[in-house]
Amino acid sequence: MSALLTALTTVLIGVGAPDPAEADIVWIANGEFCEPETVLPLPDNTLLVSNVCGFREPGSGFLSLLSADGQVLDWRILEGLDAPLGMALLGGRLHVVDNNHLRIFSWPGYEPLETIALETSVANDIAVAPDGRVFVTDTARHQVIELRPDGTQSVFTGKSQFKGANGIALHNNHLYIGGDRLWRVDLRSHLVETVGPEWLANIDGIEFESDGTLQVTPVSGPLVRYRSEHDIEILAGEGISSANHGYAANLNLALIPTGFDNSVIAISIASDDSQSGGEADTKTRWESASAAYSALEQFSGHWRGSGQGKWGTSSTVKVFSPVLDGKAMCRGGSSVYPVQERNPKGEVHKAHSLMALIKGGDELALTEYDNEGFIAHYGLDLSSSKANESWVFELVSSENLPPDFRARLTLHSPRDDQFTETLELDFNGDGYVLYLTNQLSRVSQGAAGQGCLVEK
Predict the structure, then answer these.
(1) 253 lies in the same domain as 305
(2) Please, which pLDDT band fits residue 278 given cuts at 50, 70 and 90?
(3) Which end is more exposed in the chain, N or C (fewer Cβ atoms within 10 Å of the end residue's Cβ)?
(4) What's the whole-number mean pLDDT along residues 190-199?
(5) Claim to verify: residue 242 and residue 295 sit in the same structural domain
(6) Which of 388, 439, 433 is nearest to 406 (CA)?
(7) What average pLDDT score do residues 271-296 get?
(8) Per-residue pLDDT for 5 more than 60?
């Protein structure tokens, strides 16, 4: 890191911050951005970028879509907005904060579903809880507005106490709010705590890595990775001047929108293991198949979300339920594919599976049955799975499938209210290709005794 960049970082962050490290920049996207404000990673590993393009100039704002490697897929996948700022995706509903309105679109498809006038002065960023509650920062009034599913709005915590309220994120039943400082609020008790040293201020972007590491970006500043007050890393580099950044856990990338510099910069976060495939570090592996099975309890309940894969996009429902007096975990699912270009007739795919310990508890098996007549027997690959985060199942044998067919199913759950499910296939020995990704959010917790029943 050059002395000049170190000095500039000190000016932006403040005295007392650790010296910055050189960020590992993977790619930089330039072109037709217009004041890019927020990057939202999507379940299909594409990246959505909001472009303000003249604050509150009616109709000038738009959203751009990038590929995982920074190539432009569509400069204006959605246009005609006023000043799109924060974005969030829950299931198949894309939420966009736009000039004191919440605009909700279908995802994928980007069809308008609903527009809600917000009781805000300068609505900025957004977080959406699995139960449907929406939290929006109001920068001018130094507060957060809570929008409930019944349509009512109120000031979160009942008062204005978050000076310069800007970025916002949900994590483990806490709401993190960035502004002049970084605050953490217990969603149940509304207890407010300040997080981090005094120099950690003017916070815009807030994201979480799978191990709980907190990522924040001060306005026009570098990327800060915070684990504790004694374990903080600053990643800086030429051109890194962030607005509301995003973090793509599947890609191990922090995505930095540079506002008036009109670019998006991807920074590699090397310490975050990929969600499937590679061998996990021995310190992070499951101690045993039994430990991996016991931890599946965290999935118990109902989940809803969306899928993206070879046969198009789908709306997906999952339920996990302990059965047989806890000796097995049932996983049921239903995915509805509407009529679309990659699926001109549409279809409904259903699958039920049982996960249980076998061979005296030394192995964890998953057997899946689906409505197309396929039966697949998987075993947990402990060397590729990561304790308390991922379960990687490799196909052991199958029925009604080609003999040389291979498959890998991964459950990846970095947060207790969200998980990602991926299916990779190898048809002819050429290696795995990604076939399907489902991203799901918790609807309710606990489903004991229900078995594999899912909603139609």
Answers:
(1) no
(2) very low
(3) C
(4) 91
(5) no
(6) 433
(7) 66
(8) no
d(CA 371, CA 342) in angstroms, rounded, equals: 20
Domain that holds residue 94: 3-268
What per-residue confidence (pLDDT) applies to 279?
46
Q: What are phi and psi of 338, to 5 degrees?
A: -70, 170
Domain end: 240, 268, 296, which one? 268
Does residue 135 lie within any of the structural domains? Answer: yes
- Residue 118 CA to residue 135 CA, distance in Å, equals 11
Mean pLDDT calculated for residue range 98-119? 94
Among residues 247, 143, 213, which one has the least CA distance to residue 185? 143
> Residue 432 above 90 pLDDT?
no
Q: Which residue has the tokens 């650790």?
A: 18
Same domain, 388 and 418: yes
Rg (CA), the chain: 22
378 and 243 within one domain: no
User: Cα–chain-centroid distance for residue 306?
Assistant: 13
150-169 per-position pLDDT tens digit:
999 999 999 999 999 999 99
Who wins on pLDDT, 40 or 383? 40
- Secondary structure element (H or E) that encloses residue 346, with its range: none
Answer whether 53's CB lies under 8 Å from 100's CB: no
Q: How many CB atoms lie within 10 A of CB 21?
A: 15
Is residue 341 located within the same domain as residue 369? Answer: yes
Q: What is the pLDDT of residues 376-404, one digit of tens each?
A: 999 999 888 888 788 999 999 888 777 77
User: How far apart are the C-alpha atoms of 352 and 273, rounded to whole Å?
Assistant: 29
Residue 373 lies in a domain: yes
CATH at residue 215: 2.120.10.30
- Considering the domain boundaries, does residue 162 fall inside one? yes
How distant, in Å, are the alpha carbons of 206, 250, 391, 407 from that of 309?
Answer: 29, 15, 20, 15
pLDDT at res. 414:
59
pLDDT, residue 91, reads 78
Q: Which residues contact 215 (CB under 8 A, 6 or more apart)?
A: 205, 206, 207, 208, 209, 223, 224, 225, 226, 245, 247, 254
For residue 58, give the 3-state DSSP assignment: coil
Domain finish residue from 235, 268, 301: 268
User: In the chain, how many domains are there?
Assistant: 2
DSSP-assigned letters across all residues of 221-271: --EEEEEETTEEEEEE-TT---SB-EEETTTTEEEEE-GGG-EEEEEE-TT
User: What is the pLDDT of the chain when averaged over all its residues?
Assistant: 87
**Sheet order of strands, 246-248 included:** 25-30, 263-268, 253-257, 246-248
Say what the pLDDT of residue 119 is.
Answer: 96
